[in-house]
Amino acid sequence: MRKMGSRFGLFLLAISILWAPVLSDLVISKVDRRIDLTSQIARITSTLKVENEGSELVSEVLLAFPDVQTKHLAHLSASSNVGKGKVRGSSNSFTVQPVNPKGMPASLTFYSVTLPKGLGKGESLTFDVLAVLTHTLQPFPEKITQADIQLLVFQETAYYLSPYAVKVQTLVVKLPEARIESYTRIHNTKNVGSEIKYGPYENLPPFSYSPVVVHFESNQPFAVAEELVREIEISHWGNVQVTEHYKFVHGGAQSKGEFSRLDYQARPHVRGQYAIRRLVAKLPPRAHSVYYRDEIGNVSTSNLWSDSMKTELEIEPRYPVIGGWKTAFTIGYGLPLHDFVFQSDGKRLIDISFGCPMNEVVINTLIVKVVLPEGSRDISVSAPFPLKESKETKFSHLDIAGRPVVVLEKTNAVPEHNQKFQVYYKFNSLAMLMEPLMLISGFFFLFVAGIVYMHVDMSISKSSASYLAKLQWDEVQAAIQQIQNIIHRGLVIHDKLEASLRDLSRTGDIQACKAARKAADGSLKELSKEIKPLLAFLQSSQQAAQILPKVEELVAKERDLQERLMVKHSTVVDCYEKKYGGKEIENRVASQLQKITALRLEVDDLLEFIDEI
Amino acid sequence: MAPKPITSPVPDAWYPTLSVVMLSVGLLFTASFFIYEATSSRKSRSLAKELTTGAVASVFLGFGSLFLLLASGVYV
Fold first, then answer.
1. Is the Cβ of B37 closer than 8 Å to some Cβ of chain A?
2. Where located (chain B) (predicted)?
């Protein structure tokens, strides 16, 4: 009944608009309309040949759509084909914008196509108008069981609705299957295979209208995304991360009765053939780290193919989605930075496609969020169609002020909106160093905390015996360390002296050797001076009582070693001055040499022993 | 001026290697820092040496962990 009512309404509309005034001297000499209903999206391509029969220049052509269609109109574009015939040459598109001309019927919405060159007297122009409609294919019956086939109803006018007179026109409706339940027959109607042809009709006045209804079989899944949120996050460290949150619903005929998985599995082409089985997302080439998951976790039923031109992700929902059922999932992938982000005139821009990467999906609300790096300024958006734009801030890894987010919203998006858009912004490369600096300062605070802990005295009772003992022990330790240090330095001087002796035997330069001896004498004296107060402190300290003998032994042994070394040194130098032979020298120092090696070993042992305390 | 593609300052392929190298160098410095803290006595400790060792270690650890994040797919 509803259908009949709407038909009657359309009829009234037809009557009411028949008497509207004629707008200008334009005449449409030929209209070919092709309506493609093979998917859930209705695409109406009209090829118009417009002729100017008046004398003035016309630069505007009006297109009329009934309000019933305007509601569902997702995309409207006009373009002229330069190449003739079916070969699509380079097409230049015209601006199309909604207008509100006076004296026109209220139930129509008008769009004006601006012709850049204008149309002079007697001239004609051919151009294409593409209108994309969503949600116009009504399932009838509205509820079907799993075994039923899906039938759809589509309403249109057989005559081209136009404010201008139309001389010749045809209409072709292309259906997905050859099975047609019924269609309105008016004169000159033909059905060939899966196509219905209306026309040609000749010499019709402006606003001619003849509603036709086609009722046909279509088992196309109606993949409708109620909401799709695409988040595009730029990282200048080399990645553009895209995350897409889908909320899908099957927008076709509602399912009635029960669903049998067994039937579906056994005879998928008879039982539930209109279900959404799989979806294919065409991702850009070089996409990596692709995932497909939902609230439960990873969904393993997906496949990925990639070549140099594209990456194809085939996903299968957890269950076949039949009429009215819903499913929600998330897909995500990373893209290389240099494919999408560019620098131009001091500004950076991301150039990426707007719509959903899946085929033939209608999106009721499409939200695209472009997350720019922290510190981006002067953000502007350039898109090929009007969008609702807003800004927000997102906090992500290692952020202080948050990242600026451009939120773009579009309702009723179709694959035709899959065009590239640009977001321009300014960004200083040095701001990239913020993240490592944060990490570095984090680690540095850790080290500083360690240093502070080791330096700060945190005992509560500053006068307790154990605390005082600890303090004293610290001092003793420091003194011992200093003594060790001095002894080490002394040993280094000893080594230098030995080296000077070796030089002497090689070059025979007695003066150099003597100078070395002098220098060593001086520094050794200083060292012994330094060691004295430390030893005195250790002797006075009770805490050092245990270790004191060892330290004293060490000092004594070192001094002994030092003296013997001096003796050896003097002897050797003496021998050289008196020009004794090598054997003679060896004999003279042999006894000293043995003792020196023994003492050196003892000193080393003692040093090690003290070290371990 | 034609738009020029922007690339990351360090090629993506280097991230794993860089993170391993810088983290190990950083951990070596950390080890030397804590050895110094534990072995030197309170009086003989030098603050400048502690701070420099800590600073060098934190620079290496900071960049190392950044590259580790990047290599594991967390693009900051």
1. yes
2. Membrane
